[in-house]
Amino acid sequence: MKRILLLGTLLFTMHNIYAQSPKKNVESNYEKSSSELLNRSEYYELTADQRNRIIERKRSIGREFAAIGRDHSLTGREKGQKKRQLSMSFRNDIYAILNESQKVKWDKESYNKYQVSTAKAEIEYKLELLEIEYEKDIKNIETKYRNNDSKRKLEKNNRKAEYKLQKSELKRLKDNLS
Fold first, then answer.
1. What is the Cα–Cα distance from 28 to 87, expressed in whole angstroms?
2. In this structure, what are the phi and psi dihedrals at residue 17, rounded to the nearest 5 degrees?
3. Closest-CA residue to 16 (of 50, 64, 45, 52)
4. What residues have CB less than 8 Å from 139, skipping those under 6 apart?
5. Which is the most buried residue in 10, 51, 103, 153, by most CB within 10 A?
């Protein structure tokens, strides 16, 4: 009976948290990370007490973030600094709640996500460079073979096929990171 009441209370609390959080607000990485921590509580082996403490801290951080955003006496830079400090204190608060094995799992997941996002950004950069290089090569081909239509068309088609192959390979690599 106690388990059912606890589960009911927890579900009601979680429903209220998600119902009250506006979707248009951008969450910090730590808030997203804490949401993942809560959503995957079985993987992290969180106790009910740990979940409730994280939820309560997340609520209070949300209110503090909103208060900083509404404070018109602060410049944009000062707001950013305060929000970064608040995010770091939030992460430290979460660390204080977790045990050692949970901290290791959480850090490992965060690091893996960082590596994936960095790799994706690098691939996006390579795609942009590839596009620029392709456009430059097409202009060079047009200039070089301006008097020979058949040779120009052949070279452009060859370069286009090479470009498409390189682009599809980069996109495949990016999709495999997901």
1. 7
2. -65, -50
3. 52
4. none
5. 51
Mean pLDDT of 75-91: 90
In the chain, the N- to C-terminal Cα span, in Å, equals 41
pLDDT of residue 157: 95
Q: In the 8-state DSSP scheme, what is residue 21?
A: S
Over the stretch 9-44, which tens digit does the pLDDT of each residue have?
Answer: 555 565 555 444 443 333 445 445 778 888 888 888
Cβ(143)–Cβ(103) below 8 Å: no
Q: Can you read off the two tokens belonging to residue 74? A: 């602060």
Half-sphere exposure of 97 (CA within 13 A, CB side): 25
Domain boundaries, the chain: 2-98, 114-177
Q: Which residues contact 65 (CB under 8 A, 6 or more apart)?
A: 25, 28, 83, 86
What does the chain come to in residues? 178
d(CA 52, CA 175): 36
Tokens 């106790």 label which residue?
A: 47
Could you give the maximum distance between any two Cα atoms of the chain, in Å? Answer: 87
**Alpha carbons 16 and 10: distance in angstroms, whole number:** 10
